[in-house]
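Re-run requested by the PI after the first attempt was lost when the workstation crashed. Everything re-entered from the original request form. Ligand of interest: adenosine-5'-diphosphate.
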Amino acid sequence: MALEFTRIEVRKLVKLYGATRALAGVSLDLQAGEITAIEGHNGSGKSTLLSILALAARPTRGSLRFGRLDPLERPALRGRIGLVGHAAMVYPDLTGRENLALTAQLYGLSPSGPEVQGLDGRFELGRFMERPARTYSRGQLQRLSLARALLHAPQLLLLDEPSTGLDVKGVERLTEAVRAERERGAIVLLVTHSRALSEALADRRVVLDRGRVVSDGDAEHAA
Ligand SMILES: Nc1ncnc2c1ncn2[C@@H]1O[C@H](COP(=O)(O)OP(=O)(O)O)[C@@H](O)[C@H]1O
Ligand SMILES: [Mg+2]
């Protein structure tokens, strides 16, 4: 079963939380090797869009296609997605290294294989990796979270405020890592309030307002 895709089509996505309309009909096309920045005020629906694409939340209405596949009917596609979200999704009582080993196993990779070993150099994960994750600073947690999201070479990379807590060097490493993912051919969605990060990375900008796309740098592709 091939779970490969180089395009994502989002059509007329609506997400209701009770009386709150988080998404009010979002259509978007994403392609491999492109970094799309999603911008908009607080509450405009950015995180909701990312969580639906991460297959962590289901849309109320609308459709998604990952290539020719409907991800809502193919939960195995989760294995092709990497997410850096607001919550770090790490086990606090395990060390960073144990967290990465566990994630590797979830993806069917060896916990001591090259994918896991290579992360140390890529993200300069230091001695803190041997301590329980609950002792980490915000920046260390963010670095672990990013390493964890990239470990399995995801085809879709979703980054929600990935520079939170990072120092200047950390932001540089993040920028390099995300560029490398683009080179590899990943589809990248970036939510950030950092103008600098957006300018350094984004090939295209999409602006959300109250759950709608109000500006799309690539609108001719969307229905
Ligand atoms: N789990 C939830 N339950 C209820 N309302 C939610 C939930 N998640 C998001 N919302 C609401 O949906 C709207 C969009 O939120 P969100 O997608 O987090 O926006 P953004 O990431 O752009 O700040 C907001 O009004 C928010 O309060
Ligand atoms: Mg958000």
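Saved to the shared folder this time. The beta strands are 7-17, 20-31, 34-39, 61-66, 81-84, 156-160, 187-191, 204-209, 212-216.
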